[in-house]
Design a protein that fits this description.
Residues 307-359 form the HAMP domain. This protein is an alpha+beta fold. The chain has helices spanning 2-9, 13-80, 82-86, 96-112, 134-137, 141-152, 192-206, 225-237, 273-276, 280-324, 339-405, 409-427, 435-453, 478-489, 522-529, 535-538, 543-559, and strands at 116-123, 128-132, 159-162, 168-176, 181-190, 209-214, 219-221, 242-248, 251-259, 265-272, 432-434, 457-463, 471-473, 496-505, 508-515, 564-570, 574-582.
Length: 597
């Protein structure tokens, strides 16, 4: 085995490819042909077996209907016959007149139906009356007297039995209908062909043989002793509607067992597997012939394909040698437009990209030097941006000092508050700050406004001291307060009141700003809550409402969609805006945004 592997590995690529193709094609053809033959055999057998169950079901239903029809007809004729119903039976002896009436009734019953072959009636006093063929008339009186007790136990129901000549025997106890008195037993020989014809056409069309058993597994209708034995073996295995495979005398049979709907009969449909697969060898010959033809054609195609593949592979290896020597301009021109053509195109593209990358590396080195110079400029500009606010603070402090020297204390207070607010707004680099710092900033903001409006507006603060160190986003409250002042209080004739509260509720922090101003329309509220508000959409410039949208977006970005703002407003009565935040136990520190001195 190792020698063969070594020999195979030392073959050229074209020879390996051709040999591999031949082996794969041969094994594939062999497997497909064998599988096709086996599957065909299996499918035919399974199809016929399943169809046999369907036929058995239909035959059983038809047979049960035919039996019910016979029993019902027999009862109607017995019911309508005056001899059986008008003559009151007498124990110990039967009058001669009654005997004549019984015999006449038996004769009339025989000729009333063409499938009655013979009839016998045993009266209460064991007098026998017969008509028809010799089957029943040849039987001894003991036969009927022995059968009578068992028949009487059925209380008028039909009891079926088989006859030696293949016909069926219907037995039932008769009663005087007006009084319900037992009058005797009726024996009717039923023509077998009358029952067989309900399924004869199906058997002639689909093949097989039918054997019918009584509920106690006694054969009632059978075509052959062999089929009877096969059916009995299948019935002994199960009485359910399923297929059984039975081997007998070197032959394999499939037997479908099915109970009639009334549960009184067991029907078996038997089919020989040799009949099913008798012509399957013709399919085998065709499969073999087609397999050889396909294999021969595949050998020719394998030779052509392997030659084409090896030719393209040679072009690829030659071009790779040129590529390894630094000749990136070498282009592969494939002989065909298959996968090797795709490889060739990608190889050619790779060569061009390498050349492009080499040029880009040189260009990037120059750009890197320019970027380093620009970074120095950015650092210088950033330093200037940090120096300018300090210069502004110093100017404001100087103006405040000058105002105090001139006894302008109100102006000095304004400038001090403004300076503090600018210092906090420009110098604050943290994303989260304690709640008391945020409220302190808002107090300075509202103090400036109150100094401007004097008695027109009142700010009322109410906060829970235990929440002072809860971290909140920086400058989250000021846009809400500004909105209450600009859109709520400005322009109203009554005194304005703005409440600023903080409290906790259900593990959340609530920052509430309410006013008694103009209020907002529901359309504006919906646009704000859906982050769709803009000054263009509202028809008027309004940076404060845009600020509300910004606050909402910041909260959702930091904490998720379950947090944000809630707005309640009644026009010309006022507005209440709540900021909903989670309660955090520790302060968040973003060191990357701290002031770097």
């Amino acid at each position: 085995m190792s020698k063969f592997i070594t020999w195979y590995l030392n073959l050229k690529f074209k020879q390996k490819l051709l040999l591999s193709f031949l082996v794969i094609i041969f094994l594939t053809t062999l497997c497909i042909s064998g599988t096709n033959y086996a599957v065909s055999n299996l499918l035919i057998t399974r199809y016929v077996s399943d169809y046999s169950i369907a036929i058995s079901s239909q035959i059983a239903s038809n047979f049960a209907s035919q039996v019910d029809n016979i029993e019902e007809t027999n009862f109607i004729k017995y019911q309508n016959d005056g001899a059986f119903n008008e003559i009151l039976p007498v124990s110990d002896y039967t009058p001669i007149q009654n005997r004549l009436s019984y015999q006449s009734a038996v004769d009339n019953l025989l000729y009333s139906t063409d499938y009655y072959k013979s009839i016998a009636f045993l009266d209460l006093n064991n007098h026998l009356y017969t008509a028809g063929s010799n089957l029943l008339s040849d039987q001894s009186l003991d036969y009927f007297t022995n059968e009578a007790p068992e028949i009487k136990k059925s209380w008028g129901q039909c009891v079926w039995d088989s006859c030696p000549n293949g016909n069926l025997l219907l037995k039932r106890a008769l009663y005087h209908l007006p009084t319900g008195t037992y009058i005797g037993c009726l024996f009717v020989e039923i023509d077998r062909d009358y029952l067989v014809k309900v399924y004869e056409q199906s058997i002639d069309r689909y093949g097989g043989s039918v054997v019918i058993f009584s509920l106690d597994r006694k054969p009632m209708i059978s075509d052959h002793d062999t089929f009877e034995q096969i059916a009995l073996e299948a019935v002994s295995s199960s009485a359910k509607a399923e297929n059984h495979t039975v081997r007998m005398n070197g032959e394999t049979y499939t037997a479908a067992v099915y109970n009639t709907p009334d549960g009184q009969w067991i029907l078996t449909h038997i089919v020989s597997l040799s009949q099913l697969t008798g012509k399957l060898h013709v399919i085998g010959y065709w499969i073999l012939f087609i397999g050889f033809a396909v294999f021969a054609l595949a050998v020719v195609l394998a030779f052509l394909i392997s030659g084409n593949i090896s030719q393209n592979l040679k072009l690829l290896t030659d071009s790779m040698k040129q590529f390894s020597n630094g000749n990136f301009d070498e282009q592969i021109v494939p002989a065909s437009h298959d996968e090797f053509a795709i490889i060739a195109d990608n190889f050619n593209t790779m060569g061009q990209k390498i050349k492009t990358l080499m040029r880009e590396v040189t260009l990037e080195q120059k750009q890197k030097q320019q970027i380093e110079y620009q970074m120095l400029e950015f650092q210088y500009n950033a330093l200037q941006a940090r120096l300018n606010p300090h210069f502004l603070y110093n100017i404001l402090d100087s103006i405040s000092s000058l105002a105090k020297l001139r006894d302008e204390y109100d102006i000095s207070d304004w400038i001090c508050l403004l300076s503090d607010m600018l210092r906090e707004s420009i110098g604050q680099k943290k994303r989260l700050i304690p709640l008391d710092e945020e409220i302190s900033y808002v107090r300075k903001y509202t103090t400036l406004y109150q100094m401007m409006y004097r008695e027109r507006v009142t700010f009322i603060y109410k906060s829970d001291p235990s929440l002072s160190f809860i971290p909140v986003p920086a400058f989250i409250l000021q846009p809400i307060v500004e909105n209450a002042i600009v859109h709520g209080i400005e322009g109203i004739s009554r005194h304005g009141v703005i409440h600023i509260c903080s409290f906790s509720q259900d593990d959340t922090l609530i920052l509430e700003v309410s006013d008694n101003g103009h209020g907002m329309s529901q359309d504006i509220i919906e646009m704000i809550l859906n982050s769709r508000y803009s000054s263009e959409a509202s028809g008027s410039p309004s940076h404060t409402k845009v600020g509300l949208v910004t606050v909402l977006d910041r909260i959702r970005l930091l904490y998720g969609p379950e947090y944000g703002i809630r707005i309640q407003s009644v026009q010309e009565e006022g507005t209440r805006i709540r900021i909903i935040l989670p309660i955090a136990t520790t302060l968040y520190h973003d060191h990357s945004t701290e002031d770097q001195e």
